[in-house]
Structure formats: structure tokens, C-alpha cells
Amino acid sequence: MTQTTTTAGSTGQLESDAIITRLDAAIDWIRKNSLWPMPMGLACCAIELMATGASRFDIARFGAEVMRFSPRQSDVMIVSGTVTYKMALAVKRIWDQMPDPKWCIAMGACASTGGMYRSYAVLQGIDRLLPVDVYVGGCPPRPEALLDALIKLQAKIQREPGLKNLKRAPAELPKAS
Amino acid sequence: MPTALDAAKAVRDRFGGKIGAPVVFADKVTGRDEVTVTVPRENIAVVCSFLKWDAGCAFDYLVDICGVDNHDASPRFEVDYLLYSMKNGGLLRLKVGVPEDNPTVPSVSSVWRAADWHEREAYDMVGIHFTSHPDLRRILMWEGYPFHPLRKDFPLEGKPSDVPGVAFTRAAPLDGGPFVTAPAAHAADREPRIRTNALADDVRDKTGEPTL
Considering only CB atoms, which chain A residues are within 8 Å of B171? Predict the structure, then answer.
């Protein structure tokens, strides 16, 4: 039996409110609209992250309001602030504790590149330890910028082969170089 | 009411010529009234004890202890103690010279409890060892970090180090100074920035889909 989605939807063979789509797209759609952030607040960017979560900017509009302080319940790590070398391996460890699939937003200049801290004490960008999906510029970025990053991350998740990732063992998933 | 200058004179009376003459930095406009006294290294603990417990001095508040690296000077290091008397007012600074080949200073943490962490910081950043300190560990960097980063001969970008499972450091790309301000007509062009894209080799291509 071969039917295109159009005929299936319009001939009434299925319920009228049923949606036919690829499983990949459905999984991605489910994932991207309930991202639970791990707030990795390390410096002043965390204040803007808090503002993003509060009523004025309301990250709940994008389904990412459930800030989890346990990495085991989180989907996206928002690294907001200066990552010192003393903190770096702790961040890495928390990242390793997050279950797949997981994503990372580097919020602000420090998390992205070390920012103005070009010094002996600061990791020059969290991407030296973790695979970053979205970088947000700014010192600190405004909440709108973080929300934009979240929307871009959602668009990225929607493009992912969600089903294939689902079937693969975690060891096969792309690792941070 | 005794001032810091009186206290400095009292210290000289008590400990004699080993104590340097007080240097006064006073300014009527700003109200600054700071007195500096140079103290020999081996006497610092007793002098501090005297300054705290002598009723006329009563420097009960240790504001700060700083380690200073006067590179190329002799002695190379210096430890500054900033004392304040809650009772009398008055700010007294003690300076102790520390030679490079034997950078040890008697700890004053038995005089003021606050000295504990100040001395740990001076040890961590400048590498001055405080003898008879109860717990002389690094306070900002981690145990096992091999350098003292606020020494003048330590490069700002840092040096590579590795303590497996604890922490690591890599040299930061400086490329001619952390930030350079180029003269320009427009304010936006005068923004301090790195001279070139020092991170060029580090920007990874994240656009490609993961290979499956």
C-alpha cells in the first residue's frame, strides 16, 4: 500500500486531526520544545540568564523554563560566564553526567572565547572541552540574545537525524575533540 | 589619642634601630594619613604582636597582607602589612623585604586570625613561604599548580600545566598584548581589541552535520 501524505490526510481514512510526518521530525519536534537547561552560571552572564528565565523575558515561551540543577535531568547546558581552569574540569564532569542527547550553548564572550580574560587563569573558550552548538556574543548578552540562541538551537535540533541518534549507543555519538 | 605615627615611634622605642624611620604619606585634601615602617624579616611577628596588644597602639584589625614582586630590585620580594586600629583610628603599614633565594617570612596568623588566608594568597600568587603558618596551601590556584602567577617573570598568558583529574592550564593566545588600542577617529574603531584574530586556529567548523 503506497499512499502519499496528502491523500492520507484528505481522504478521511485517518482521523481528521491526525498529522502524518517523519518519525525523525516528530522526535526532533518533541525534543526541541522541551529543552531542560542546566544553568552553568559562572559569572555575570548568569544574571542575564536569570533575567531570561524571569517574567519579563520568560524563557517558558520556548519550552525551556525547567532549569534543572541536576545534570541527569538536563538537555542543554547553558555555560554562562567565565570558565576558569579551576572550574573547567568540573564543568566537563557535569557535562559528562548529562544524558544524551544533549546540547551546549556558550553564553557570552568569556564562555565562547575567554573574553577579556586572556590570562593564565581562564580557559579560552568552553569549546576546548565541550562541543558547543550555539555561541552567543556579548558581555553579557541581553536576554533577547540568549532567547535567539535558544531558537537557533531549536532549529538545529529540528534538522538532526533524531531517530538515528536514538538507535545509536552513546559511545558512537560525536565527541568533543 | 595616639596616632599611627605615635605607634611607629613606640615600635622604634621598643625594638630600637632595627625598625626603619616612619615614612608619612599625609594629604590634607583627601584626608590620607598613612605611616609606613620598614621592619626586619625576623622581627615581624613580634612587632605585630606588640602593635596588636600594646594598649597605646591597639592595631586590632589586619586590613591586608600583600606580597609584592619588585623584580630586579634587591631584595626582590616584599610583604606589606596594612594595620588599622579600631580603637584609635590610624592606618599603619609595615614593609618587610624578602630575598629571592630564601623567600620565607614568619607568619603572623597567630596574632591575627585574618592573616591565615592573606598569607595563603601571598604564597599562592607570589610564592612567599610563611613559616609556622598552620595551613599553608594554595588558596586561588589548585594544589599541584607549579607556578606563582603574580611574579613579574611569569607571562600573563600563563604556562602549560597539568594535574590529571584536577585541573590544567594552557598558554592563552596573546599575540602582542591582550588588547591593543589603535588611534582612530571613530570611537568604535578605538575599541581595545586583539591585534589580529589570535584564535583563528581554534575556531572549529561546527556547520557540518555529524557523520553517520
Answer: 120
